[in-house]
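User: hey, got a sec? need Adenylosuccinate synthetase folded
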Amino acid sequence: MKVDVLLGLQWGDEGKGKVVDVLTPKYDLITRFQGGPNAGHTLEFNEIKHVLHTIPSGIFRDDKINVIGNGVVIDPVIFKKEIEGIKKLGIDLSKSLFISKKAHLILPSHRILDAASEAAKGKSKIGSTLKGIGPTYMDKTGRNGLRVGDINSNFKEKYELLVAKHRQMLDKFYEFDYDISEYEADWFEGIKILSEFQHIDSEQFLNDALKNEKSILAEGAQGTLLDIDFGSYPFVTSSNTVCAGACTGLGVAPNRIGNVIGIFKAYCTRVGMGPFPTELFDEDGQRLRDNGNEYGSTTGRPRRCGWLDLVSLKYSIMINGVTELTMMKSDVMDDFESVKICTSYKVNGKEVEHVPYEMTDDIEPVYTEFKGWQTDMTAMTHENEFPEEFNAYIDFIEKETGVPVKVVSVGPNRAQTIDRMID
Ligand code: GDP
Ligand code: IMO
Ligand code: MG
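Assistant: Yep! Here you go:
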C-alpha cells in the first residue's frame, strides 16, 4: 500500500482539517508529519466545531489509528488541553492515538525564546504564532533537543540542562523579561498525560502497517509557501511542509508515496508577516475576510486576504508533485459580481510566470477577470448543479495547472463537500 499525502498549497489555513476528516473513512491510519501547535485545523460536523493543533484530524472517526510522527513538535501543555477537549466529547483516545518516540518536545523556554526573538526583531518580525516552533526545531537540528522517548530516562536532568542553555541565551542575547517557572508546573502535568499514551517507533509501525496492506493518509500542517526551504523565507515556519516532509517526518520512503492531494482556497489568505502579491486592501479584501470568517484558528489574528495566485499555486504543485486538487471555500465568493485570478507577476516592470527568488513586496500581479457566479452554492451536493460561471473558474484553474480539481468544498461542514469524480 501507499501513503497518500494531503497538503496546503498556500500559506496555511486552506481547510486541511476539514478535508482530512472527510477523507478519513477511506484510510486505516491518519498521521501528522511536521509542525506542531502552530497549526489550527478546524472540523465541523453534527453541530460540533472543533479545532485541533497537534492531534491528527482522523480522531473523530471510529476504528482509525492516528499517529503523531517523528517530524512533529509537541507542547505537552497544549497536548493536554487537546486531550481534555476531546474527552469532553466522549472520545477515548488511549487506543487510537500513537506518538513517535522521536517527536521533539517544545519546552516552556522555547516559547519564551520565540517571543524574545520576535520582540528583538521589531518591525521585521516573522509574526510567528509564539508557540516556540522555531526554537524547538533549532534545538532539533542543533542536536540539543528533548524527545518523547526521553521522558523515561533521566528526564528531569536532561530538561534542566536544556533550560540552563536557554537561560544563557536569553540573558546574553535578549533584553526580555521572562519567568520560566510560570509555565513549568503545567508543562510537567502535560508530560504526565503524554506518558499515558503509547510511544512507538513510528517509522517501523507505519512501514509494518504498509506491509500489512493498511492505507495511510499523511496530514500536512501549514502550507507550501511557509516551507522552510521553498516558502517566502524568512517569513516561513521552521519545518518542511512539502510532500518530501512526509518522508522524513514519518520515515516512509519516497516510492511509498501515492496520491498527493493539494488543497487550496479559491482565493488566498495569509497570517503573519511576509510578501503576499495578490493581497487586497480594499472592499473586496474585507468582504473575503467577512464572508470567509478569516480569523486565525490558533491565534485569532485577522487573516490577510487576496485573489487566487496561480503563479505560486503552480509552484506549489510542482514542488509537491500534486496529483489532484481540492478547492476550498469558493462559497465565500458566492456573492461577488466579479472575481480575479493572478496569472503572472510584474517584477520591476518585467512580466514573469515563476516565483522569483525574492518574493518582495514590489511584485505587481497581472490578473484575468471572471464573471462572478452570484449563486448560493452552500447547499449543493453535485457538480451538475454548478453555475456556468463557476465551471469557467474551475476549468481555467485545471487548464492552467494541468491537475484535476477533484473535490470542491462549499462550506465548513463535513457534508458540504462535493466529489466531482463521483456520478
Ligand atoms: P487548516 O489549518 O488548513 O485546517 O484550516 P483552518 O481550520 O485553520 O481554516 C479553515 C477555516 O475555514 C475553518 O474555520 C473551517 O471551518 C473553514 N472552512 C473549511 N472549508 C470551508 C469551506 O468550504 N467554506 C467555508 N465557508 N469555510 C470553510
Ligand atoms: P495551519 O496548519 C497559517 C505562520 C505564522 C507565521 C509563520 C511562522 O493551521 O495551516 P511559526 O509559529 O510557525 O514560527 O510562525 O507561519 N503559520 C501559519 N499560518 N496556518 C498555520 O497552520 C500556520 N502555522 C504557522 O503566522 O507567519
Ligand atoms: Mg489553520
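Quick note: The mean pLDDT is 96. Let me know if you need anything else on Adenylosuccinate synthetase.
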